[in-house]
Inverse folding.
């Protein structure tokens, strides 16, 4: 089974009619490109794009470390740019593609901005708010986006795991260097 067939299996037919499996892969690959920008600045590599009428209207990537701001998550950045680009806070015709399952803060922003569909790659069992740790879509909220998990999951997961392996190596070297200079 190739990647396109796997995605077709995971996406409900009502959503599939709006975009092809190839489109879902294309948009997630773009989110992965933005995630790589975060990685370049030593931020956790998470990227996001907002799509409206089949076109990318905005993007975001993690900038928490560089900006020293807890609000600079990829999804928040992408949603903020989409609101500016489209001239309003209601993004009910938009889809969000993000490489990692949204956290509670980002899930709240997705719900409040009325995003129609959320596609994410890697699940987050420690902080995911759309089924990983808990599911905000099961709460009595006024909006429930369609959520599809696992789009390009292997690539998204690999990017994150490779980043954390490298980060641990870097921290170990820094610790060893600090220890040797103190001696």
């Amino acid at each position: 089974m190739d990647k396109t067939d796997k995605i077709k299996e995971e996406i409900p037919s009502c959503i599939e009619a709006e975009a092809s499996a190839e489109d879902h892969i294309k948009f997630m690959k773009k989110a992965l490109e933005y995630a790589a920008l975060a990685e370049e600045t030593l931020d956790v590599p998470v990227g996001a794009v907002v799509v409206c009428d089949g076109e990318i209207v905005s993007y975001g990537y993690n900038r928490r470390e560089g900006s020293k701001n807890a609000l600079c998550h990829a999804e928040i950045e992408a949603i903020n740019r989409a609101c500016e680009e489209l001239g309003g806070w209601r993004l009910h015709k938009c889809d969000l593609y993000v490489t990692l399952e949204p956290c509670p803060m980002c899930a709240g922003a997705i719900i409040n901005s009325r995003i129609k569909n959320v596609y994410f790659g890697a699940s987050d069992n420690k902080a995911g708010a759309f089924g990983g740790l808990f599911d905000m879509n099961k709460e009595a909220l006024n909006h429930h986006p369609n959520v599809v998990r696992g789009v390009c999951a292997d690539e998204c997961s690999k990017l994150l795991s490779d980043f954390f392996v490298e980060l641990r190596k870097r921290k170990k070297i820094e610790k060893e260097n600090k220890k040797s200079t103190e001696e």
